[in-house]
Amino acid sequence: MKKTNKPRKVVTRRDFIKGAALGTLGVALYGKGGNLFAGSGPGVVSFAAENPQSTVVLIRNEKAIGAGDAIDPAVVQEMIDAALKEFSGEQDAAKAWAKFVRPDDTVGVKFTRCDWMRVHTEQPIIDAIVKRVGEAGVAQNRIIAQDGGLPVAKCTALINVPTVKVHTLTGIAVSLKNYINFSPQPSKYHAPSTNLGEIYLFPEVKGKTRLIIVDMLRPYFGPGPQINPLHRWNYHGIMVGTDPVAVDSICLQICQVKRKLFKGEDWPITPPPDNIFAADKTYKLGTSDPAKIKLIKLGWDKDLLI
Amino acid sequence: MNRGAVIKRATILFAFLVWVLGPISQMSANRSQENKATPAATAFASVLPEEISGWKKSRADQIFGRENIFDYMDGAGEIYLAYDFRFVFVREYARGNAPSLVVEIYQMTSSEDAFGVFTQDLDADEVHVGQDALYAAGLLRFWKDRIFVRILADKETPEIKPVIMKLGEMIAASVLQEGTRPGLISALPSEEQRPKTLRYFHTLISLNSHYFLAGENILNLSPETRVVLAQYEKEKSRARLLLVEYPSLNQAEDAHGQFAGIYLKDKALPEGEVQSQKLEDGRFSGILRKGRFLIIALDAEALPLAQWLFQETSQKLEGKN
User: Fold this and answer.
1) ipTM of model
2) Which of A4, A5, A174 best probes binding to B when mutated, by most B CB atoms within 10 angstroms?
3) What pTM was estimated for this model as a whole?
4) Which string of b and e fits B215-240 if b means at least 16 CB within 10 Å?
């Protein structure tokens, strides 16, 4: 058959420049000039929705990380409690937790433990969550804190506890990527990673995620694939939400701003994290539109980046 | 044993083993983690000391080949598989409460690809180990001949940095010869090239990790294609230059047509004719085919810069087809 050069529908960099791909995410990554996520329309203040589709709480504390990058468990516990109280609208931490877990739940605390990459969920964050879940009445033998091999089918509730990593194959790895090992074929969701959101809809996963608590104490913004310590910074943050798309979108923006600061020029995250946009538009897991997200910022505001 | 004697001993043993066991080591790497028994593991293990400045080997050495690289780096092995990676040897050191150390020696089939893997991330300060080396914040990376090495400390301390450098020097000294850099680099204009922006690779997955062009493989990149990507700055304007060498004329022609049709949304011009366009962001992109080579200018802030890149590269490619 004779070959032709007839154009076929392929998403290219030009689509991102025009804002025709990934919506505001595309503009944020590859649009020229203007603020990140500026595609929400004139007059719209990003992440300040009055009637939000999603609410996310970001809390930071300068004292969370001490000398030698040591994490202060007490400060971390306070941060999580404060963020959860704000997120739930409760004055009391116990009441706040009771909104998300029940005593008869079997709770999977899905954290990130990646030996070769070394951007783990910090143990004090895992410990703080396990402690509060226990205090909410869940028996210790029904709290399963694990990364690989977490028996998700056995769990009635999941708490997604990822780190934040810019990723060579998926663009960024936060709450959507953290569930990748619930699939028997994780590499199926790499390059392209568009279908990463479908894992949230696996029968044994769907509807179980009660909370997302993101370890943003020491995120990674470099290209990878392996860690370059120059590309890790102490952000001192923890993020709480229930919408993985909103959470990942905010983390994406923070990392993108950090990259620009680091290089002193545009340094777009690549490949484009199209999994976030697809999780919104295809899998309907949440919103990536900053005009529909309310970001509540608590605590230390130096170098907030958002 | 003093350092000089250690290096000398290691050098002789390593050179011998590499010479004798090269083909065998590849086979060994393709078997799981039979690290204790593989000649390759023996070779690398012999180069490295059991103890250095109080840091002791803390677990059994590991070796991972193309088939099980994901057992070591689930979620990133693809980047190494995009090169002619054969296996990685991993040695870990620990010393009480001090930061631990991990040494990774990546054995590639060619020195060109050892260089290519090295260019994946060039953020760090240049140091003198092997043929090119970078160090920052407790991570040393270098390449020499057909190996790429990473030595990483959990945390950088004043005490651990000399240990990292010493280990690097020992490994580099054990590799007797230097390897050649990819010949394609010589076709790039060397003037006006921005520091630490040169990348060498083969496939789409690598291109996308540096620069997103398209969601599909419109340039028909494959393990057989050779690609260099670099950034330029001339008269306060910047641009990227992508140069692709195809194994055959047909493949270059096909990719030329696809880039023109899909990216520039135009019909490809004949060989030797520059085709460029001002895109939606006001920057220029264009393509020129010269035999089996595609010269592609991207994100040029000024048209003269794109034209200069085409002209310079085209001249340097004379006689390379």
Assistant:
1) 0.87
2) A5
3) 0.89
4) bebbbbbeeebbbbbbbbebeebbbb
